[in-house]
């Protein structure tokens, strides 16, 4: 039972975090209150246009990283299965699409197929790196 929990609990916790991150709390309006002052503190002469670009890129990189972590945790959870890669990828794709669908119901958020593609890319890259490392270790 302990092995089961240690394998799947981090994955389930991360899925819950992704769902929380899809709420109003992580909307662009709220994240700009953190990213904007931080960038201006580091680079006081940043123009509003540059600040908007930095905020946009930071949010997209967060999507990529969030789903790369999901890919890693899924690979870890399903590593005992012969088809761990496929199972993990299906989870990443399904959750990325469901996450954006969920965001379509959150007033402060917008659903975007592009964000789903960024999410899937993050998860897929992590899974490909893991598969390659496992193949090299074999």
Please characterize this protein's 3D structure.
- The protein has 138 residues and is mostly helical.
- It has one domain.
- It is built from 5 helices and no strands.
- The protein has helices at 2-21, 28-42, 48-78, 84-103, 113-137.
- α2 packs across α3 (48-78) and α4 packs antiparallel against α5 (113-137).
- It is elongated.
| Gyration radius, in Å | 17 Å
Q: How helix-rich are the residues, as a percent range?
A: over 70%
The overall strand count is 0
The fraction of residues assigned to DSSP E strands is under 5%
List low-confidence stretches.
none
Write the element-wise H/E pattern from the N-terminal end onward.
Answer: HHHHH
Tell the overall outline. elongated
Topology:
Elements: H1 2-21, H2 28-42, H3 48-78, H4 84-103, H5 113-137
Helix pairs in contact: 1-3, 2-3, 3-4, 3-5, 4-5
List the keywords.
single chain, 138 residues, mainly alpha, 0% strand
What's this, in brief?
80% of the residues lie in helices and 0% in strands. The protein has helices at 2-21, 28-42, 48-78, 84-103, 113-137. The mean pLDDT is 90.
């Amino acid at each position: 039972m302990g092995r089961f929990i240690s394998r799947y609990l981090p994955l389930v916790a991360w899925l819950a975090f992704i769902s929380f991150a899809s709420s109003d709390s992580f909307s662009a309006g709220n994240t700009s209150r953190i990213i904007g002052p931080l960038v201006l503190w580091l680079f006081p002469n940043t123009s509003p246009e540059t600040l908007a670009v930095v905020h946009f890129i930071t949010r997209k990189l967060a999507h990529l990283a969030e789903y790369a972590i999901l890919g890693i945790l899924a690979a870890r959870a399903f590593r005992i299965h012969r088809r761990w890669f496929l199972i993990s990828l299906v989870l990443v794709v399904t959750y990325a699409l469901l996450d954006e669908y969920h965001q379509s119901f959150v007033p402060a958020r917008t659903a975007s197929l592009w964000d789903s593609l960024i999410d899937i890319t993050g998860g897929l890259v992590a899974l490909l790196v893991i598969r390659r490392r496992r193949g090299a270790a074999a």
